[in-house]
C-alpha cells in the first residue's frame, strides 16, 4: 500500500509582517520518515478500511469490515462469498480468503482505495515472503502447519560482513557485564573520535546490531 497521509503544522509569521491580525502558515508535507509517520498512517489506513471499504464493492455486495478486539492488527472482512482475514503491519499486509471468488474483487478494491495520483495502490508479492521471513505451509494429519524462517536474510548478512567475521564465534553478541559507554554533555561517547564513529557506522554497525537482536 502507498502512504497517503500528510503532516500539518503551523508557523507564526515574523512580527513585521503582521497587520493587526495574527497570521499563520499552513505547511503540508509527506510524513514519510517522521517518528510519528507509522502511527499517523495507521490511523488513516484503518479509517479507509472501516469507512471506505464497505462502500467500495459493487452496489448490493454488502461487505463489512471490523477490527478484531484481541488482535488489533487484524481485520475481519465479510465479503460476498465468505470471510477475509486481513493482517497488516503499517503498510505490509497479508490475508487469506475463505472463498477464492472474493480474492480478485478484494485486490481490485484495495488497489483502488490506496491508489495515489493514478499509481497502483498495492503491490502483490510472493506469498512465501513477508517482511523478510520465508513462509512454508504444509498439512499433516489434517492440521495445517506454517513454518517461518529468515535463513535467506541471515545468509545475505553473513556474506555482506564476511570481512568482519572471526574464525571463532563469540559466546554472546555483546560482552556480558559491560555497562553503557560514558557520554559527554553533547551525547557523544567519551574516548571515541568522530572519525572512528563515522567509520564504524559506515561499515553497517546499526544494521548489523538490528538483525542480531
Topology of this protein?
Elements: E1 6-12, E2 24-30, H1 37-52, E3 64-67, E4 74-78, E5 83-89, E6 92-97, H2 101-113, E7 129-130, E8 133-140, E9 143-149, H3 151-160, H4 194-202, H5 205-211
Antiparallel strand pairs: 1-2, 3-4, 4-5, 5-6, 7-8, 8-9
Model description:
This protein is α+β, with helices and mostly antiparallel strands. It is 26% helix and 25% strand. It has five helices and nine strands, in the order ββαββββαβββααα. Strand 8 (133-140) and strand 9 form a beta hairpin. 7% of the residues are buried.
Strand fraction equals: 15-25%
Contiguous runs where pLDDT drops below 50 for at least 5 residues: 1-18
Shape: flat
Mean pLDDT figure? 77
The percentage helix is 25-40%
Number of discrete domains? 3
Number of helices: 5
How widely separated are the two ends?
Answer: 27 Å
Major beta sheet summary: 4 strands, antiparallel
Query: What's the Cα radius of gyration?
Result: 25 Å
Side-by-side strand order of the widest sheet: 3-4-5-6
Class computed from helices, strands and strand pairing: alpha+beta
SSE run = EEHEEEEHEEEHHH
**What is the number of strand segments?**
9
Amino acid at each position: 500500500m502507498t502512504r497517503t497521509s500528510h503532516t500539518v503544522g503551523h508557523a507564526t509569521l515574523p512580527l513585521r509582517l503582521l497587520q493587526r491580525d495574527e497570521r499563520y502558515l499552513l505547511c503540508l508535507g509527506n510524513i514519510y520518515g517522521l517518528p510519528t509517520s507509522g502511527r499517523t498512517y495507521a490511523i488513516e489506513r484503518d479509517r479507509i478500511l472501516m469507512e471506505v471499504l464497505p462502500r467500495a464493492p459493487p452496489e448490493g455486495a454488502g461487505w463489512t469490515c471490523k477490527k478484531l478486539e484481541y488482535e488489533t492488527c487484524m481485520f475481519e472482512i465479510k465479503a460476498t462469498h465468505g470471510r477475509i482475514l486481513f493482517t497488516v503491519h503499517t503498510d505490509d499486509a497479508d490475508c487469506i480468503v475463505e472463498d477464492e471468488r472474493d480474492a480478485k474483487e478484494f485486490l481490485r478494491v484495495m488497489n483502488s482505495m490506496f491508489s495515489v495520483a493514478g499509481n497502483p495502490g498495492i503491490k502483490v508479492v510472493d506469498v512465501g515472503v513477508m517482511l523478510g521471513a520465508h513462509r512454508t505451509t504444509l498439512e499433516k494429519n489434517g492440521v495445517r502447519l506454517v513454518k517461518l524462517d529468515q535463513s535467506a536474510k541471515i545468509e545475505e548478512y553473513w556474506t555482506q560482513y564476511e570481512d568482519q567475521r572471526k574464525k571463532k564465534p563469540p559466546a554472546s553478541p555483546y560482552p556480558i557485564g559491560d555497562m553503557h559507554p560514558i557520554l559527554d554533555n553533547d551525547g557523544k561517547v567519551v574516548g571515541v573520535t568522530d572519525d572512528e564513529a563515522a567509520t564504524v557506522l559506515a561499515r553497517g554497525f546499526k544494521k548489523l546490531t538490528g538483525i542480531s537482536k
